[in-house]
Automatic annotation (TrEMBL):
Keyword terms: Endonuclease, Hydrolase, Nuclease
PROSITE patterns in the cross-refs: TNASE_3 (PS50830)
Phylogenetic lineage: Bacteria, Pseudomonadati, Pseudomonadota, Alphaproteobacteria, Maricaulales
SUPFAM superfamilies, alphabetized: Staphylococcal nuclease
Protein name per Swiss-Prot or TrEMBL: Endonuclease YncB(Thermonuclease family)
Database matches in Pfam families: SNase (PF00565)
Length: 269
């Protein structure tokens, strides 16, 4: 039964990718970006990873597309192939140039005939609904634009946003525990915050031993404070947090940069 469903998704992906790409106006790059590396596509691994003809493996910074054999993985792969195939490409780095797997961690652009940037590939993938925003410390370039595009795609139920597999998660621990070892977007109200030996814990339930928690290490505290977060007084804030869900006294996301948090309200009085 599962095999039949995957075949259907692959067929659907070809059609949806074509419709989405044709019906949405293309984005242009407004900034004067000068790429640092150039190349052409050799193959697509998934919606956020490619290999250039030079052999350089590229991980597109700040997005997370469906991985192989998951819902909408074929559609995402088809979408990025349509964007990049036969186009000259430019890589722009902001922050770390390589990830832990030695892949180029880059903003990717298609190029015009004169070599100047044309389309920002990350923005196109997010806008069409074939990737979610996933920022990294030091690489959150134009992240606010990506978040707006993601919200528009989610509201319009484009691409992966049609699937419950990628819906915004509740912090309810019994539900979130099923998402351990995966990237998720979690939205909820901070019930309490605690500072213990310099570590910050944002608790989304009354029992810190079982409920969902966001944890921020002492060494990252100043980065969050510079971004306007008062970590000692977060109670009552509704937050949308994105990151890798782990299990440590209940589900937890460890954060090292403030761009992974969206504040959705003001503190309750």
């Amino acid at each position: 039964m599962r095999e039949k469903r995957n075949i259907a998704l692959t067929r659907r992906g070809v059609v949806i990718c074509g419709i989405a790409y044709a019906s949405l106006p293309q984005l242009s790059v407004a900034d004067d970006i000068e790429p640092e590396d150039y190349g052409r596509l050799a193959r697509v691994i998934n919606g956020h990873s490619i290999v250039l003809k030079s052999g350089l493996r590229v991980r597109l910074a700040n997005i997370f597309a469906p991985e192989l054999k998951t819902d909408f993985s074929a559609e995402a792969k088809n979408a990025i192939l349509t964007l990049l195939n036969s186009r000259p490409l430019g890589l722009f780095y902001q922050g770390a140039k390589r990830d832990r797997y030695d892949r180029a961690l880059a903003q990717l652009f298609t190029l015009r005939p004169d070599g100047t940037p044309d389309q920002w590939v990350q923005a196109e993938m997010v806008r069409m609904g074939y990737a979610r925003v996933r920022s990294y410390a030091g690489t959150a370039w134009r992240i606010d634009e990506l978040l707006k595009l993601e919200a528009q795609a989610r509201d319009a139920q484009r691409g992966l946003w049609q699937s419950a597999d990628y819906s915004i998660r509740s912090p309810a621990p019994n539900i979130l525990a099923q998402d351990v070892d995966s990237f998720q977007i979690v939205e909820g109200l901070v019930i309490s915050s605690a500072q213990i030996r310099g570590q910050t814990y944002l608790n989304f339930g009354s029992n810190y031993k079982t409920d969902f928690t966001v944890s921020i290490a002492r060494k990252h505290k100043k980065t969050f404070e510079k971004a306007g977060f008062d970590l000692a007084n977060m109670e009552g804030l509704r937050l949308r947090v994105r990151g890798w869900v782990e299990l440590y006294n209940g589900p937890v996301i460890w954060l090292d940069h403030p761009q992974a948090i969206e504040q959705l309200n003001s503190a309750l009085s």
